[in-house]
Amino acid sequence: MERSDLIWILSSATWLCEDAELRALFVSEDMEHADEYAARYMDDTLRCLDQLNPDAISRLVAAGENDWTNAVAKRREAAGLADTIANGFAKAVENLSQQQLLSRSLIDDGTSGRMFIQTASKETQSKFLVVLTK
């Protein structure tokens, strides 16, 4: 279980750093690199997701238990954490895909990455954000 917790902590830290790096690229108007990095990070995260098998992980964690009742309890606990980890990776892939599409759209429209970030940061009421080019 400790290793599963460590995987979650390290993955979360990685996603946080990737998001900060992409935001910095948007603000610095380096949209080409934002597009490239988002694609690369998405591919890396997809490879990790493909290697995750929550059922296999939970069975592996429970395999060390001699007592059947404890093994079932550990497997259920590990399955919940493994599912959370897999869902986190899937959400990260989705977010990185959106970042890549956004950077490509901003490039194609000639919209400032910095302006987009500033506009998005100020919006608190609407569920939708529309950025118009000048």
Task: Describe the overall structure.
- The chain has helices at residues 2-27, 31-51, 54-63, 68-109, 113-122.
- The protein is an all-alpha fold and 134 residues long.
- α1 packs antiparallel against α2 (31-51) and α1 (2-27) packs across α5.
- The longest helix is centred in the middle third of the chain and has 42 residues, at 68-109.
- The chain is elongated.
How can the largest sheet be summarized? none
Helix count equals 5
Query: What structural category arises from helix and sheet content?
Result: mainly alpha
Shape: elongated
Average residue-wise pLDDT = 89
Radius of gyration: 19 Å
SSE pattern: HHHHH
In total, the number of strands is 0
Q: Please bin the fraction of helical residues.
A: over 70%
Task: Report how far the terminal alpha carbons are from each other.
Answer: 53 Å
Summed up, what is this model?
The protein is an all-alpha fold.
Question: What is the secondary structure topology, with strand pairs?
Answer:
Elements: H1 2-27, H2 31-51, H3 54-63, H4 68-109, H5 113-122
Helix pairs in contact: 1-2, 1-4, 1-5, 2-4, 3-4
